[in-house]
């Protein structure tokens, strides 16, 4: 029996195109007509689905939050340090597969007090609030469990998950944009992904290493 082809809804096609444009041009480097033309749409057609350009960006940020919330999944068959390294490898893949989310995150850090903070709006609260409540709370709880398991193994010191997340998140964001952002402008080769993964593990394991009292 022939499988019936599925059509991507226009609402999702718009978000896909916005993600592509953010990766190439930045959050503020495109207009809605740049989104409409490749899709064969007129700009008013976008307003049937979204109230404004900012509304489109908040919806892209909601996609980001939904996928971020799935990070740091437990790996029962791995030793604690291997499980944490696997989680960080997936974290790198997540960022490289969705370069628009890297740029969105950086924009959020640049707009204090009253700016259009897309990721914070999508998350329903501040970054700090999401450590204990909101759509990212479960992800942070899983990370906390992984770090606690690493500490119990005796291979790493005990740290707060907020501090660890600060280190790996900030390190990875800067790694992908400085001194250039070429990995955000094209699909990274498997060898390039592995290189970034090894680099982030070096950063993370160095931070977690046992130190003299």
Describe the structure in your own words.
The protein is mainly α and 213 residues long. The chain has a single domain, classed as Orthogonal Bundle (Tetracycline Repressor, domain 2), CATH 1.10.357.10. Helices cover 60% and strands 0% of the residues. α1 packs across α4.
CATH architecture descriptor:
Orthogonal Bundle
Q: Treating each run of at least 4 consecutive H or I residues as one helix, how many helices?
A: 10
Overall body shape: elongated
Major sheet summary line: none
How would you briefly describe this protein structure?
This protein has 213 residues and is mainly alpha-helical. The longest helix is centred in the C-terminal third of the chain and has 19 residues, at 190-208. The protein is built from ten helices and no strands.
Which labels suit this protein?
213 residues; mainly alpha; 10 helices; Tetracycline Repressor, domain 2
List the SSEs and their pairings.
Layout: H1 10-25, H2 32-36, H3 43-46, H4 53-68, H5 80-97, H6 99-109, H7 118-123, H8 137-152, H9 161-177, H10 190-208
Helix pairs in contact: 1-4, 1-6, 5-8, 5-10, 9-10
């Amino acid at each position: 029996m022939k499988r019936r082809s599925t059509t991507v809804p226009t609402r999702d096609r718009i978000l896909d195109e916005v993600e592509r444009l953010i990766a190439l041009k930045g959050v503020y480097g495109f207009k809605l007509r740049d989104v409409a033309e490749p899709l064969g749409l007129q700009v008013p057609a976008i307003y049937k689905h979204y109230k404004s350009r900012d509304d489109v960006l908040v919806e892209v940020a909601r996609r980001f939050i939904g996928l971020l919330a799935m990070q740091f999944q437990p790996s029962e068959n791995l030793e604690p340090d291997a499980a944490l390294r696997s989680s960080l490898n997936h974290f790198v893949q997540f960022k490289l597969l969705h370069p628009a989310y890297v740029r969105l995150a950086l924009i959020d850090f640049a707009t204090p007090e009253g700016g259009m903070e897309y990721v914070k709006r999508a998350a329903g609260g501040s970054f700090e609030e999401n450590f204990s409540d909101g759509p990212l709370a479960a992800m942070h709880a899983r990370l906390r469990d992984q770090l606690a398991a690493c500490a119990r193994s005796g291979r790493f010191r005990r740290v707060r998950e907020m501090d660890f997340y600060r280190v790996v998140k900030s390190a990875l964001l800067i790694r992908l944009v400085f001194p250039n952002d070429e990995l955000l402008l094209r699909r990274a080769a498997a060898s390039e992904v592995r290189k970034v993964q090894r680099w982030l593990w070096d950063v993370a394991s160095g931070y977690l290493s046992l130190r003299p009292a």
